[in-house]
Amino acid sequence: VDKENRYDWKIFALACEAGELYVSELVMSRLFQDLKEAIEMDIQDHKRIQNIAAAMAFILQHGGDNPRLAFHSKSLQMEIVYALSYPPSQIQQDAEMSTLLLPEIRDKKRTEADKAVQLAYSILPLLLMAYYKCTPHDKIEALLSFTTQVLPPLSEWDNTKLCVVLPILSIILAGESNLDMKSSRFLATSLVEFVLTRYHHHIARIAAGSCIFSILSKQPQDDPNPIGLEIMIDMVSPSIVTKLKSFQDESSEGVDTLNDTINLLALIGSASACRGSSSSKLADDVAKSLAHLACEGTMHSPSLGIKDLIDCKRYPINIQKKVSVAAGNALGSVLNVKSGNPFWRQRISHHVLPIVLSSPRSSKGATFGKLLCACHLICCISLPALGEKRMFDLTSLIVNGIEVWCTNVASSQNGDREPFDQDLRIMLMSSLLKIMNDSTQSVSLTIFQNTDITTELTSLFPRYFCSITGNVPHSNHITRNSFDIEVIR
Fold first, then answer.
1. Taking Cα atoms as reference points, which of 422, 397, 400, 426 lies closest to residue 412?
2. Contact at 8 Å (CB) between 127 and 56?
3. Residue 349, SS3?
4. pTM as predicted
5. How far apart are CA 214 and CA 474, in angstroms?
6. Half-sphere exposure (CA, 13 Å, Cβ side) for 113?
7. Cα separations (Å) of 244 from 309, 328, 352?
8. CB-side neighbour CA atoms (13 Å) of 149
9. How far apart are CA 27 and CA 59, in angstroms?
10. Residue 152 belongs to what H/E stretch?
11. Which residues of 335-464 form beta strands (DSSP E)?
């Protein structure tokens, strides 16, 4: 849609901005009516539906406050959910009885539901702005009630309803500071199982994870019973124990299932860290458990409900490597969250760094996970606060990791490389660059005598680095003690 030449949209937006509230109510109501009719007439006509949604989005963005007020005062936020998530009237009865249909008819209904989800995701990104930080509390309660009524989903159209409402709810909860903890606690518990079920649409599962994060991180500080700990002990830890003890399937589905469970553990840890207060210990325990799993291939944390030692070193090297990398990346996702108290990241690094540096020599399968943990720590925290000794140890670990990568991974055939091999390469080089920028005394010029390292740096960052040279004065050089890096502007 060419927004610049849609003068009709500009006129409507100007009228809403300059006029009274009833003008915006009239415009938004008419546009929604057109949108609803277009959906009911032909669910395949995506272009017309998207044009109407784009017009609504343009007016919401450029029409001042009145269009948003009209959007909520006329209850359009719920009407849009109903329009996108309910089947056409002629198949409503069949959808409600979907569990009793013959397989071939169920396949047909599943196809119709999939088309509805595809349509919803083609227009929802245009309208989500209307829900952020401006949805009335009674409308939030209506959306929460609508969501809990279809959890767990028992039919294809229940799944469709969740695919529509969860992205909206995730935006609302992200901007809402005062949540009803009674309904939110039930919602968070119900969404955990939804997130762990790979049958559901991946976008809806991501939105469900966002909802869980918002609920856990915004639980009132004076509540001594963290929701995250309850979910961890009752649902997440048993799932992790089961999957780690039985994980011998190297297929992509088996790996993805394990990654989902470990990522949910990290999500709860990061949300607990952002909340602080009585959740701080939970965040620390999650981070330490992930570090042990990544660096040593073991997990044991009675406080999280993992009472028996899980030892992954008995698995084949390939499986050890996948588990180690999953845990290392999960720890990175915890550290990369920017919300909450500015000091929680430093506190967690204080607990995790000794595990990374003092763990016994990692097995071949856990080497990558240990390097990933070190990289994420370097990239996410203030390096001067670590102290000279720890900074030197981290630098040595990173340089050794680069040499290992250059020797073992880079020399292998492209078809033999895993996707995370390239991810580790980028993380190692990024970590080295941050060390060079923030803690130059930890880097010796001798590392640049290794042609593999200099080749990797210049190949990864060709736009920024022309050469690594001696101490040659130049206006375009960034001087770092005994070496300069020429920057291409």
1. 422
2. yes
3. helix
4. 0.82
5. 49
6. 23
7. 11, 15, 21
8. 9
9. 9
10. none
11. none
Q: Is 243 exposed, middle or buried (0-12, 13-18, 19+ CB in 10 A)?
A: buried
**CA 226, CA 202: separation in Å to the nearest integer?**
27
The two three-digit tokens of residue 404, written as one number: 């290992």
Cβ proximity of 297 and 320 under 8 Å: yes
Q: Which residue has the tokens 């890096």?
A: 485
Is 431:464 a contact under the CB 8 Å cutoff? no
DSSP summary character for residue 178: -
Which residue, among 383, 359, 368, 366, has the nearest Cα to 436 in the 3D structure?
A: 383
**CA triple 275-280-283, angle to 5 deg:** 95
Tokens standing for residue 271: 């949300």
Amino acid at 94: D
Q: Which residues contact 61 (CB under 8 A, 6 or more apart)?
A: 13, 129
**DSSP of 414-444, one letter per residue?**
GGG--HHHHHHHHHHHHHHHHHHHH-GGG--
Look at residues 53, 73, 92, 211 and name the one whose alpha carbon lies nearest to residue 147: 211
Q: Is 95 within 8 Å of 155 (Cβ atoms)?
A: yes
Q: Which residues contact 93 (CB under 8 A, 6 or more apart)?
A: none
Alpha-carbon span 375 to 377, nearest angstrom: 5
One pLDDT digit (tens) per residue for the chain, 489 residues: 556 678 889 999 999 999 899 999 999 999 988 888 888 776 566 788 888 899 999 999 899 889 988 888 767 778 888 888 876 543 444 444 444 455 555 566 677 788 888 888 888 888 888 887 778 888 888 888 889 998 888 888 888 899 999 999 999 998 877 777 788 888 999 999 999 888 888 999 999 999 999 999 998 888 888 999 999 999 999 988 888 877 655 555 667 788 889 999 999 999 999 998 889 999 999 999 999 999 988 899 999 999 888 888 877 888 888 888 899 999 999 999 887 777 898 899 999 999 998 766 555 556 788 899 999 999 888 888 888 888 888 888 888 888 777 776 655 555 555 656 677 888 888 888 888 887 666 565 445 555 555 565 555 555 444 444 443 333 333 333 333 333 322
Distance CA 71, CA 84 (A): 16
The backbone torsions φ and ψ at residue 275, rounded to the nearest 5 degrees and listed phi first, read -70, -40
Crossing angle of helices 344-358 and 367-380, rounded to 10°: 150
- The one-letter code for the residue type at 129 is M
